[in-house]
Amino acid sequence: MWTISDFPAYSMLSGWTTHGRLACPYCMDETDAFWLPNERKTSWFDCHRRFLSRNHALRRNKKNFRKNRVVSNSSPLELTGDEILFERIEDCVRSYGLGVTTEVGGNGHLPIQGYGEYHNWHKKSIFWELPYWRHHKLRHNLDVMHIEKNFFDNIINTVLNVPQKSKDNPNSRKDIKSICLRKELELTEDGKAPVPVFRVFGEAQKNFFRWLKDDIKFPDGYSSNLARCVDIGGNKLTGMKSHDCHVFMQRLLPIAFAELLPHHVHESLSGISSFFRVICSRTLKLEDITMLKQNIVLVDVPV
Ligand SMILES: [Zn+2]
Fold it and tell me: What stretch of H or E contains 35?
């Protein structure tokens, strides 16, 4: 009926490369993604305010997102299967010789015109041969637990400031200066990085690890033993499997930093947690959707 995969496999299944600036198969060439020169990465920060309603106050917020930026553009057009197939893919087949899987291989990249610039098609997916494929509202689904693990690893490694793993590093601090109004995070004149508001260290960090090791108990079979993932000497969590991250994200993150971090940081983190709780729940009730909308705003607050 449809596919469920992680984001790299999405690329092989859909024929749209999920790397680089055009990685989003929905925004396509309408993306607001931009390049971070010091971190040497593409960033999708502040790409989401365009999905808010036209007169939403956050669209005019020049302070908390990319600095001095007002978002007036609307969300990218949601293309139907017919529009994607006949106006985008077939056009690439005719004009630039986009190949099918049997010609270019499962993940083959023939350098066709415009690739990486205004489209990311590397093949015409074989799924389009299914007679019903273009009538699907949704053709490819993402496996939430993969995304949840990436989110969790990055959050916890940044909060605990794990060397080489934290997203808070000298290069990201340099990029912040040109992109955000966050004076308190910019490198000082002698090149030092001030301690950020979202870091748990010292006595607070010891308490956090002690809590995980000694106090947290789950019902039998609910999760593997999280205490064995605590590496107190190394000040980090190790060997967390996807499911461990899932349990931590949904059950512990809403309370873990309530007393260890400032209230607004804790709220943002538990907002991310409830986002995953809502998209994982099988039935989306109206209250959930309302909550989700509120929490998207929380997620958008740069932590
Ligand atoms: Zn997108």
Answer: strand 34-36
- With 0-12 / 13-18 / 19 or more C-beta atoms within 10 angstroms meaning exposed / middle / buried, residue 15 is buried
Return the pLDDT at 296: 46
The three-class DSSP label of residue 164 is coil
Smallest CA-to-CA distance from 117 within 86, 92, 85 is with 92
Q: How far is the CA of 26 from the centre of ligand 1 (A)?
A: 5
**pLDDT for the residue 112:** 85
As averages over each run of 10 residues, the pLDDT of the chain (303 residues) reads 90 93 94 95 95 94 96 94 95 89 70 88 93 94 89 97 95 95 94 95 95 90 87 90 91 95 96 88 56 47 36
What protein residues have CB closer than 5 angstroms to ion ligand 1? 24, 26-27
Please tell me the distance between residue 160's alpha carbon and the centre of ligand 1 in angstroms: 30
Q: What is the DSSP string of 37-89?
A: TTTTEEE-TT-SGGGS-TT-GGGG-SSSSSTT----PPPPP---HHIIIIIII
Name the 3-class secondary structure at 282. coil
Give first-to-last CA distance, the chain, whole Å: 38
